Amino acid sequence: MCMNTQDCIDGAFSGESQANRKYKSYAEAAADEGYDHVAKLFRATSAAEEIHARRLLRVGGYIGSTVANLEAGREGELHETNQMYPEFVSIAEKEDRQDAVITFTHAMKAEAVHAELYRKALEAVKAGKDFNVKTIYLCPVCGNVEIDKTPANCPICGIPGASFKVVE
């Protein structure tokens, strides 16, 4: 329940963001099952939820300068790396949920990489420059990000570096 408009914006953003990701995943599942038009419907509603979430970020005052955005992004990644995911891993281990342990651990390690990349980008932007990279690669399994070249295997999840996707 909202106590004020900002609370309502925050709650709506959370819901819209989750719906966006769920519907995108539902689209992939529908396509895998051969339901191409259902997949298309889920992709459309996923995109609509993304529009709602982005608008809520703006009206909520969460989009700042590139410096402010990099600082906020790095702070969030460090929180996930140092507090959130270690706690989640511990809970999953106690419950013997190895699937969750692996997922949380991969995310935690990838978030640490993201935080370091944000730090480097922040240094560049504060110096009045863009982040000096040619190509950014994304691991489609764990979310690791590599700059300018891929490793033989992802250092986090181990998949072949050739599986990484170029980020445009």
TrEMBL record:
Gene Ontology molecular functions: metal ion binding; oxidoreductase activity
InterPro entries membership: Ferritin-like, Ferritin-like_diiron, Ferritin-like_SF, Rbr2/Nigerythrin, Rr_diiron-bd_dom, RUBY_RBDX
Annotated Ferritin-like diiron domain residues: 1-129
Superkingdom of the organism of origin: Archaea
Pfam families, A to Z: Rubrerythrin (PF02915), RUBY_RBDX (PF21349)
PROSITE patterns according to UniProt: FERRITIN_LIKE
Keywords: Electron transport, Transport
Protein name: Rubrerythrin
Organism: Methanocorpusculum labreanum (strain ATCC 43576 / DSM 4855 / Z)
